[in-house]
Amino acid sequence: MKSIIVLCVGLAYWPTNYAAQTPGPETDHPIIIERPHSPVELGDLLLEYNRYIGPSIDGQVTVALSLHLLHVAWSNQVMTATFFLRQSWTDSRLVFTGDHDVEVPTRDEIWEPDTFFPSAIETKTSAAATERSLRLAPNGTATRSARISVVVPCQLTAAAIIAHDGRVNCTIDIGSYGNSGVSQIKYQWRRDMSINYGGLERIVKSAANTTSLVRVATGEYSKASALIELQTALTRQVLDYIVLKKSDL
Ligand SMILES: *[C@@H]1O[C@H](CO)[C@@H](O)[C@H](O)[C@H]1NC(C)=O
Ligand SMILES: *[C@@H]1O[C@H](CO)[C@@H](O)[C@H](O)[C@H]1NC(C)=O
Ligand SMILES: *[C@@H]1O[C@H](CO)[C@@H](O)[C@H](O)[C@H]1NC(C)=O
Question: Which residue ranges does the record assign to the Neurotransmitter-gated ion-channel ligand-binding domain (predicted)?
Fold first, then answer.
């Protein structure tokens, strides 16, 4: 028994890499007729706009989230995930007349939630124009999409290899850094397609979404979590094989 435990600990640190990829970004974007928006018009809208103050009606702003997984890998007790994160909120100061969404040019800065990934060891947000966008609908709903990579701790124990055949639940937490400009940013998962992992079924076995409130010294924070169940390469069969090999020696 002792030797099994020692082996399992060794196994848990085995560099394994299970990866799969989908061809492209979100497919559920509304079809938008590309018509360049007059920067003068948006400039007018932002004339007396203060981007340090949030679009709060009652001190709170609700940010709807959806996450489209593009790539997931597990190795050495961490999960690396690359996804498009889409955040939507409504800012009544940005209501305009028109029937199309417009792209907000980077020079026209508007208030945005100070979203970060509290449990991540590493975060990379793509700065490429093709992998980031900020759109504004006539009703004042802003949608920020960005391609993001995070590395989060995700422990697979020997007991879990045996109990779940190498499956492990990894969590990506999403929260606000300091409720900037409002009393509280409240995260909510979109009702439909909140977590999309189409094309990654070989490694992602299920996904679940939750939200909660976290109380810390500096205030109350809303947190959204994406729970991703992964199939690692460390299955019971692999474990048995190694144990048998070892006893042959
Ligand atoms: C604003 O418009 C967008 C799309 O144009 C729509 O998805 C959203 O539900 C609208 N929001 C409100 C608060 O009416
Ligand atoms: C992961 O979480 C889901 C939902 O909570 C649960 O049904 C499943 O059994 C968990 N998987 C593992 C490997 O613990
Ligand atoms: C997100 O959570 C809601 C409510 O708990 C559930 O109805 C929905 O199916 C979930 N979506 C995903 C992708 O897990």
Answer: 43-208
- Asked if residues 176 and 61 have their Cβ atoms less than 8 Å apart, the reply is no
- CATH classification of the domain holding 44: 2.70.170.10
CA angle 47, 49, 51 (to 5 degrees): 135
Distance 140 CA to ligand 3 centre (A): 26
At 173-193, the pLDDT tens digits run: 999 998 888 989 999 999 988
Report CA(140)–ligand 1 centroid distance (Å).
8
Domain containing 207: what range?
A: 2-248
Distance from the alpha carbon of residue 190 to the mean position of ligand 3, in angstroms: 8
Ligand 3 atom at minimal distance to the Cα of residue 209: 1
Q: What are 53-81's pLDDT values in tens digits? A: 999 767 899 999 999 999 999 999 999 99
Residue carrying structure tokens 């299920």:
206
Number of domains present in the structure of the chain:
1
Q: Is 241 helix (H, G, I), strand (E, B) or coil?
A: helix
